[in-house]
Amino acid sequence: MKKKILLVDDRPDNLMSMESILETGGYELIKASSGREALKILLNEFDFALILMDVKMPNLNGFETAALIYEREKLRHIPIVFITANNYGEEQMFKGYQTGAVDYIYKPVNPELLRTKVAVFVELYTKNHQLIAQEQKLIAINKSLENEINERKLSEAQVKDLNHRLLENIDRLEATNKELDRFAFMSSHDLQEPLRKIRTFNDLLYTKYKDKLDNEAVHYISRIQKAAERMQTLIKDILEFSKVANLKDRFIYTDLKVLVEEVISDLEPVVQEKKAQINIKSLPCLDVNPGLMRPLFANLIGNALKYAKKDTAPVIDIDVQSTETTNGSADNGKKKMCRIVIKDNGIGFDQKYAEHIFEMFVRLHGNSEYEGTGIGLALCRQIVEKHNGFISALSKENEGSSFFISFPEAVTT
């Protein structure tokens, strides 16, 4: 916004002269032909950056006008520069400064001097307002902090009580989770026996009576068998998930390349069937639980094979990168992480599901398209977190997926 300057002089030619000198400065110039007119203007307007006022005026001279202006609290921040043709003695000049004047300019006015002084005072006015605004902001912040401190003091006892109850709830929750894990393990284990009997008797029924049953009955028996197989796979996966939760952390310095090669060897029938190409570029030796690393890589590589494009041979690249991540430790807050990347050229998925795929029983495709229980990737996340690491995915539909597994280079228990 343009800075406003009030010009006060009883002679129109002087007002016009000052206006012509200052018009190039981009100011908003307001003119008053007497002290009384200036006071009237200042009744409604307070945002002047400067007042240039003639000393010698009829009725109210410049000194008297300045004294009346500064009687009002809202106007005391406006600097006044007197313009005079008289070279007053020290006593008169002191009187002018007593009324609140900040400077004098003598007539005839030097245009360059007037422009320079006005620019300086306007700049001081601007900075002063910025400081006032900053001060008000700091006062408001300080008041807010005081209120917050008072609220914290008042609620300190309540917070302690809540923390105590929270700790009790956490202990109960941990105990409940352990019970649930044990329950899931035992339930899944106990379910296997009746399920085996269902499959056995179903096989006997099919073998003994298949020639006596019509096509519809044979179809129903086949569906029972497939449903039982899916149930057995689900129970097996739940058992695997429960085992991970209850396993103690026993880490061994392990060559991951050798371990992954063993996993690929177990998957050899599927690899040959799909004519897959698996490239292991480099893998490190890390402190890990080998028993957990096998299902981790088996799930990720198995998924890359399962979700391959129908008319394209799968290509799976397994590589490693060294990265750094902040962990808030004492060693400058940094910790070396080893990031393993498993990239495929499969069907991919919409990136918006990248977080959900690691949740239990979440599947992006139905059983009619791809078999599965929706536990595999949840198990992968649990295994990685067991090693103080993290897992994420980057994918695009029909353009393949990349899974990123990060482990600390030195795993601590």
Task: Describe, in plain words, how this protein is organized in 3D.
The chain contains eleven helices and twelve strands. It has helices spanning 12-22, 35-44, 62-69, 90-98, 111-154, 156-209, 215-246, 256-266, 268-274, 290-306, 376-386, and strands at 4-8, 28-32, 48-54, 80-84, 101-106, 252-255, 277-280, 285-288, 315-326, 334-344, 390-395, 401-408. It has a five-stranded parallel sheet, sandwiched between helices. The protein has a five-stranded mixed sheet with strand order 7-9-10-12-11, with helices on one face. α6 runs antiparallel to α7 (215-246), α7 packs parallel to α11 (376-386) and α10 (290-306) packs antiparallel against α11 (376-386).
In short:
The protein contains eleven helices and twelve strands. The chain has 413 residues and is an alpha/beta fold. It folds into three domains: 4-131, Rossmann fold, CATH 3.40.50.2300; 172-246; 252-408, 2-Layer Sandwich (Heat Shock Protein 90).
Report the β-strand fraction as a percent range.
15-25%
Arithmetic mean of pLDDT: 82
Spans where pLDDT lies below 50 across 5 or more residues = none
Counting DSSP E segments of at least 2 residues, the number of strands comes to 12
Percent of residues in helices: 40-55%
Order of helices and strands: EHEHEHEHEHHHEHHEEHEEHEE
CATH architecture of the largest domain: 2-Layer Sandwich
Please compute the radius of gyration using only Cα atoms. Answer: 42 Å
> Structural class per helix/strand content?
alpha/beta
Strand order of the main beta sheet, please?
2-1-3-4-5
CATH-derived topology of the largest domain: Heat Shock Protein 90
